[in-house]
């Protein structure tokens, strides 16, 4: 369990589709093995809690990777049953895309470096 220590719900569009009418901002912290980790998240939703008063907190479940607790989110944002198909596909494709883009950039830089060396020798 984590502790929500800041919360804001901003109404963006009353005519928006499901889970798109508000921008939610949450600041939270949680403890793992005696060490405190902090997080902040913004997302679109229809949820609207009352804003937190100064010093007020709320409890919320936090999901994190045990090997790296710095990678964390409120559990409701990582529940695959509540995510759309697009969001699941996005979270699978983006890391693979980053890796492929990095490989491409490294190859291009090696080619340029090799070409510069050849030009300098001539």
* SSE class: alpha+beta
- General shape: elongated
Q: So what's the oligomer here? A: single chain
| Biggest sheet, spatial arrangement of strands | 3-2-1-4
What Rg do the Cα atoms give?
22 Å
Main sheet summary: 4 strands, antiparallel
Strand content: 35-45%
- Number of helical segments? 1
Features:
122 residues; alpha+beta; 4-stranded antiparallel sheet; two-stranded antiparallel ribbon; 30% helix; 38% strand; elongated
What does this structure look like?
It is built from one helix and six strands, in the order E-E-E-E-E-E-H. The protein is α+β, with helices and mostly antiparallel strands. Strands 3-2-1-4 form a four-stranded antiparallel sheet, with no helix packed on it. The chain has a two-stranded antiparallel ribbon with strand order 5-6.
């Amino acid at each position: 369990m984590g502790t929500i220590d800041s919360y804001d719900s901003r109404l963006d569009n009353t005519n928006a589709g499901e889970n798109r009418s508000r921008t939610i901002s949450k600041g939270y912290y949680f403890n793992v093995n005696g060490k405190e980790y902090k997080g902040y998240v913004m997302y679109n939703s229809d949820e609207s809690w009352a804003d937190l008063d100064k010093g007020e907190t709320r409890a919320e479940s936090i999901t994190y990777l045990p090997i790296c607790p710095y990678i964390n989110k409120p559990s409701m944002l990582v529940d695959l049953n509540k995510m759309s198909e697009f969001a699941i596909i996005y979270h699978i494709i983006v890391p693979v895309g980053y890796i492929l883009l990095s490989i491409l950039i490294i190859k291009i830089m090696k080619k340029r470096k090799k070409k510069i060396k050849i030009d300098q020798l001539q």
